[in-house]
Amino acid sequence: MQRAKERDLLAAPSRRQLLGWGAAAAATGLAVLPGVARGWGDPVTGHDVSASVSTGLPYAGFKVLEIFLYGGLSPWETLWWDPDADADIRSQDDQLAGFGWSSSPSCVPGPAPGETRRFLGTSATGLAGRLRWGPATQPLWDPAILDRTRLIAMHHDLEPHEAAIPLALSGQALGRPNAAGMGAPISRRYETASATPRTVPASYVFLPSRGLASDNFQVAGASGLHGGNHRPLVLKTGASLSTAVSQLSRTGLVGADPALALLADQYEARLTGLGGRVRSASWDRYRTALGTLRGAPELRDAMPASVPVAPIQTLCTNAASTGSHETAQALELAAHLLSLEMPPGTSSAGQPAAAYACVVDAGVVQAGGAGYDTHGGIPDVTTGNLFATLQALRQYLYAGSGTAPAGTIDLRTTLVIVNTEFGRTPVNRDHWPSGYANLLIGGPIRQQGIVGEIDTSGLASADALTPTDFRAACLYAAGIHPLADATYSIADLSDALTGGSTAESTVLTNLRTRVLGLT
Fold first, then answer.
1. pTM of the model
2. Rounded to 5°, angle at Cα 311 from 203 and 409
3. Quick check: 25 pLDDT over 70?
4. Alpha-carbon distances, residue 268 vs 3, 262, 276, 430 (angstroms)
């Protein structure tokens, strides 16, 4: 029966499915959907996920680091290894063993050198009672980290990268006007809560220097209906990053500001009639952008003295690699910004230099369009790339109880998201949105847990989350009402999250208890 379901999911879409997808992609407006309309910035009354964390904002929320594994991570060798699963799922084990993970000290930073699989936990129904993590996750094998990690079983129905990536990064289908990455609503929240406009962005997106532009991973920086002035600062990693940061000083351009302001005033005068200036949201955003330009030197002061160039370290793979590890470079810069508090005298004094950073990880070893876009050859590429990324991440994570060292990501105040657009089929490792895994680490997470299931044939259970559910939970953890305007409505969420209810309080309770594991 399960195999028949799998074949159906891998078959060509029906005419009805195509028509449904086309309608979603061609959407030009938002339907009237059930739920309570929310003004922006309304608190999540009675459901605060982090009352003990003070950020100086109207209600508490966590900073966010998101790592997007561009290309689609295979869960079977990495995050979801069940010894009771079909042999097809476990067919790569012999290849993994051939790499000698336990015999190479540099590949085993965890506490048990002889262990190549790490027990993660038991799910609610016990189906994944023997669930293990694969050897590529060893950099995270620290009890202080594992105790604050939740593994989320995911699913959706979009197989092309071009459609699945926007869904994963925004929670909205391709073509929806409200599709936005997390950076825009977080920037909007900080600007709304600030007494004076921030001249330093609250959100950053680091894109790789390589990758297929048609895959639409740039949606991580999309602002949707939040307005272009809330768009995160988007930077490309690699050799060009140093040049971009050096130009923030605006050498030779400061003298042009009065001329630019004069031209702006003249244009605004043309919008002014007898009854006063014509209302123009676009013009207000343009004015905000001009102010941001003048604040670029302050942003330069928030950056480190020199932009890191991260060498490739141990890959734990036989695949060849050259150059630098752009993801490690971006993680170092993201950790710096997320851990820095803006000093007195700046427009954002007392606030974090960054509240959100997204690192799009294309891997060290190239495979197809990205390092995780592998149709087979998993040990050579996927496991090595994931190990390298988690190894880089680990050196910036602080999971202790004292004062976090400078330049580290304190898991008490920051949520780490590991996200990808889909998984891989149990056979041949082709695109597989029907069952894959994401991670939530730190922030509001206080106990290890597994949300949803992936059964032994690779299909997600009915209580697994959709990308929209997942993004709603992440916004909630960041202190943003997930049902506020320009985010989501209850109708956008799955029955697995709402339980069929249209009550806002039910949705918030399920986000808090079921997804984040809070009482």
1. 0.85
2. 35
3. no
4. 64, 10, 11, 54
On whether the CB atoms of residues 467 and 168 are closer than 8 A, the answer is yes
Owner of token pair 């002014």: 272
- Measure the CA–CA gap between 407 and 289, rounded to whole angstroms: 29
DSSP 244-313: HHHGGG-TTTGGGHHHHHHHHHHHHHHTEETTEEPP-HHHHHHHHHHHHHHTHHHHHHHS-SS---PBP-
Q: What is the pLDDT of residues 181-222, one digit of tens each?
A: 999 999 998 887 777 777 788 999 999 988 888 899 999 999
d(CA 84, CA 428): 19
Return d(Cα 295, Cα 287) in angstroms, integer.
Answer: 13
Q: What distances in angstroms separate CA 106 from CA 86, 111, 340, one per listed residue?
A: 31, 13, 31
Could you tell me where the DSSP H helices lie in 356-403? 382-394
Whether 140 and 193 have beta carbons less than 8 Å apart is answered as: no
* 505 neighbors 480 (Cβ within 8 angstroms): no
**410 with 402: CB under 8 angstroms?**
no
Contacts of 482 (CB under 8 A, 6+ apart): 472, 473, 475, 476, 488, 507, 508, 511
Could you give the CA distance from residue 24 to residue 29 in angstroms, rounded to a whole number? 10
Q: How far is CA 12 from CA 17, 25, 54, 201, in A?
A: 10, 18, 51, 44
Helix (H/G/I), strand (E/B), else coil: 176: coil
DSSP lists the bridge partners of residue 234 as: 205
CA distance 437 to 214: 24
Q: Confidence band (pLDDT; 50, 70, 90) for 76?
A: confident
Please report, for residues 49, 190, 423, 469, the alpha-carbon distance to residue 473 in angstroms, rounded to integers and kept in the order given: 10, 19, 20, 6
Longest Cα–Cα distance in the chain: 80
Contact by Cβ (8 Å): 357, 302: no
- Give, for 335, the enclosing helix (H) or strand (E): helix 326-339
Residue whose C-alpha is closest to residue 443's, from 53, 180, 37, 165? 53
